[in-house]
Amino acid sequence: QVQLVESGGGLVQAGDSLGLSCAASGPTLNRYVMGWFRQAPGAAREFVAATCTNGGSTTYADTVRGRFTISRDNSKNTVNLQMNDLKPEDTAVYYCAARWGYFSNSNSRRDVEYQYWGQGTQVTVSS
Known about the structure:
Elements: E1 3-7, E2 10-13, E3 18-25, E4 32-39, E5 46-51, E6 58-60, E7 68-73, E8 78-83, E9 92-100, E10 116-117, E11 121-126
Parallel strand pairs: 2-11
Antiparallel strand pairs: 1-3, 3-8, 4-5, 4-9, 5-6, 7-8, 9-10, 9-11
């Protein structure tokens, strides 16, 4: 059983940067695809970014590509999301998720493919 805990959320201004971290306990993460999702008030949960088991491949939502970077450190059992040039529309609760299986651009974007989820961390971007 993988347990995930996100940290690093907060209130920032548009154009600022913020880094999120996801710490895992239980099995080591090196066999799990890791993803970040977000959910804004009144909206469905949406894919943000994902990385394969060794971090060599990544995929991003079009809305964040070029501004966000996902990375992982399997030796520390952590996954990070560096967010630059934040916009008010990035305001949401951000969730870290883990899935057992192979990495592909398609299946890593679907939240139903992920078995484990963190509790989420709030990111608020003011204009």
